[in-house]
Structure prediction request, 163 residues.
Amino acid sequence: MLHPLFRFQYRQLFQLAMVITILFSLNSKLLGQTENDTLLIREAVLDYLEGLEYNDTLRVEKALHPDLAKRVIGKDENKKEKLDNMTAATLLYYTKTFDYTKLYKAGVDPKEPLKVEVILFDISHNIATVKAVQNKFAFFDYIHLGKINGEWKIVNILWAWTD
Prediction:
């Protein structure tokens, strides 16, 4: 038989465990996040990357916030690193006019379907951070999204070359 002091401690531990369990199960609801948010975030990232692949400006535009900042660390004429910026309007222009097969990794079969992996790092309070990698383009993206008026929109992209 347990000493009364141990029974009291077990009861406290059990109550604490119940509180923690309830908080974890309610966490997504408390932060306004639903299971559907993960799917909608993935859909926005796919609209962006598949839109580039197929020069589909409607899909890319659907994915982006109009104030998008897309950035890459490049080099100037003196080989000094600098930050290059692109706006949503510029990205939409390139989506319409640029041949994105020129950005394929070496040896990629253009007929191969685009496969995108969306790695969700964090989602809370209507913002999310993901990494998007895919099998065709010679770049990957770190993407910030915001849930604005019920829709997940890409607001920032920091990308880098893979080759």
Observations:
- The longest strand covers residues 64-75.
